[in-house]
């Protein structure tokens, strides 16, 4: 019987980015068979993304550094292969879809790769239509990309990757910005791609949707593959064994529920009355939203991508104007343009909220007169696992580190209401837990905290209350009293709000 040649192989591969003081990959040996489904996981900074960049030819062409050993993809060394030709065989889907967009229209973006390789127009039209139909995302056709939510943009990036029908798919944190229902839709597509014989490599923290799909799991640490498990072996690990490896659960039913008690302020602190919003020439996105909130509550806002969660947060923060609505804080009517005086909004895209040239100075910005500021900054850096980066430039941090830094700034804010937009997007278990502790710190200090999230684990650790948003209205308002209410939230998220 003829021995099967692996489609991808790493032979004593090491890589160190230019300007870094240590290697990001260290003597990696790995073979991947054609048609295999491989998941790479581990804590942030373990080398997952660097390994995938070797497979899709971003290393050494676009990320400079010192590469030793050998990486062979489809019979060619990445040191010699042409990135343009590799693009026909390897589709890449990144955590931040904006980094791979070339147009401003969703349909044009899905068609772009085909046009780039000179595929006839009639064939392009067929492939684009097929891509939108495959994920049941025809409502995203011909949309302005700037009006899409981050999750909807991620869906467009995934659709665009399928049009060339490549042999290899490389996905880097593809679930980071997706709601659970959309993730389960993506699972169906990945299952179909696997059944069709494609080779799939997924770098991921959220593992639940990969249960039963992955042939192998690689757990990385400090640039090395420290453990390799088959799909069957991974499925046998208990919840405690997963946590001891600092991994997210493979089964959402194993999530442990923490009962989060509000601090118990009896008087209503925030009132929103009949808030409605619509984009220009678009159907109404939010319709007559009315809620009350007390100090010391952490309120999770959940719903499908594009349902208006981030819009809700931006209106409450005074960043965008709603069509109608009344806002009352501590019993006083507050004009919408003045809401920013009371509400601190932490964006999902952390780059937009970083201003200084060091992590420490970022936290001190605007806070230097606070008594004991240096001690408070030091405590926050430790809580958010950033103490080793205190002198780094914020733009030298990873996406997750930047995200935690902006949350640290919120912790120092004297504003009574905090809105966090997807604060655990792309975070490993360890750092998700650190952010949960930060949110609980804010709640215990008497803040009103809103968390916009798709992360069930994070909800289980932080939310005292959850708002279920569907078709522009709050479908349910739940006090998180234990397993029964958590199951309602989980079912709502998994079924797309049904």
TrEMBL record:
InterPro entries the UniProt entry points to: AAA+_ATPase, ABC_transporter-like_ATP-bd, ABC_transporter-like_CS, ABC_transpr_CbiO/EcfA_su, ECF_ABC_transporter_ATP-bd, P-loop_NTPase
Classification via PROSITE patterns: ABC_TRANSPORTER_1, ABC_TRANSPORTER_2
Primary site of residence: membrane
Molecular functions (GO terms): ATP binding; ATP hydrolysis activity; ATPase-coupled transmembrane transporter activity
Name of the featured protein: Energy-coupling factor ABC transporter ATP-binding protein
Annotated organism of origin: Dorea phocaeensis
Keyword set, alphabetical order: ATP-binding, Cell membrane, Membrane, Nucleotide-binding, Repeat, Translocase, Transport
SMART domains documented for this protein: AAA (SM00382)
Cited function: Probably part of an ABC transporter complex. Responsible for energy coupling to the transport system.
Compartment annotation: Cell membrane
């Amino acid at each position: 019987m003829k021995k099967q040649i692996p489609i991808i192989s790493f032979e004593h591969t090491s890589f160190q980015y230019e300007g870094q003081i240590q290697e990001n990959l260290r003597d990696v040996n790995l073979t991947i068979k054609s048609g295999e489904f491989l998941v790479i996981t581990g804590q942030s900074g373990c080398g997952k993304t660097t390994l995938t960049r070797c497979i899709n030819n971003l290393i050494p062409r676009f990320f400079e550094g010192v590469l030793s050993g050998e990486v062979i993809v489809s019979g060619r060394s990445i040191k010699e292969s042409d990135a343009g030709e590799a693009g026909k065989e390897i589709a890449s889907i990144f955590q931040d879809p904006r980094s791979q967009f070339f147009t401003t229209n969703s349909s044009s973006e899905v068609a772009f790769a085909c046009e780039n390789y000179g595929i006839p127009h009639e064939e392009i039209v067929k492939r684009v239509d097929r891509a939108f139909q495959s994920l049941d995302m025809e409502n995203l056709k011909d949309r302005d990309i700037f009006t899409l939510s981050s999750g909807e943009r991620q869906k467009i990036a995934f659709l665009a990757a399928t049009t060339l029908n490549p042999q290899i798919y490389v996905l880097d944190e593809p679930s980071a910005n997706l709601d659970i229902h959309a993730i389960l839709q993506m699972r169906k597509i990945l299952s179909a791609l696997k059944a069709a014989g494609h080779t799939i490599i997924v770098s991921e923290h959220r593992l639940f949707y990969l249960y039963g799909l992955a042939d192998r799991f690689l757990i990385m640490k400090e640039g090395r593959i420290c453990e390799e498990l088959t799909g069957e072996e991974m499925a046998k690990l208990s919840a405690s064994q997963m946590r001891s490896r600092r991994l997210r659960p493979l089964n959402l039913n194993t999530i442990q529920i923490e009962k989060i008690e509000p601090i118990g302020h009896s008087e209503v602190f925030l009132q929103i009355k009949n808030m409605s919003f619509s984009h220009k020439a678009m159907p109404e996105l939010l319709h007559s939203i009315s809620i009350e909130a007390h100090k010391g509550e952490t309120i999770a806002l959940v719903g499908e991508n594009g349902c208006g969660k981030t819009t809700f947060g931006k209106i409450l923060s005074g960043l965008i104007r709603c069509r109608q609505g009344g806002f009352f804080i501590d019993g006083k009517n507050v004009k919408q343009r003045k809401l920013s005086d009371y509400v601190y909004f932490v964006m999902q895209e952390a780059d937009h909220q970083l201003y200084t040239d060091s992590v420490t100075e970022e936290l001190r910005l605007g806070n230097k007169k606070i008594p004991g500021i240096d001690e408070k900054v030091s405590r926050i850096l430790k809580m958010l696992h950033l103490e080793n980066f205190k002198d780094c430039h914020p733009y030298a941090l990873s996406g997750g580190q930047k995200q935690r830094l902006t949350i640290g700034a919120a912790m120092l804010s004297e504003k009574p209401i905090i809105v966090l937009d997807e604060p655990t997007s792309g975070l490993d278990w360890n750092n998700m837990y650190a952010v949960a502790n930060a949110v609980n710190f804010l709640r215990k200090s008497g803040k009103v905290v809103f968390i916009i999230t798709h992360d069930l684990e994070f909800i289980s650790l932080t939310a005292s209350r959850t708002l279920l948003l569907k078709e522009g209205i709050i479908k349910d308002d739940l006090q998180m009293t234990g397993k029964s209410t958590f199951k309602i939230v989980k079912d709502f998220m998994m079924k797309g709000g049904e």
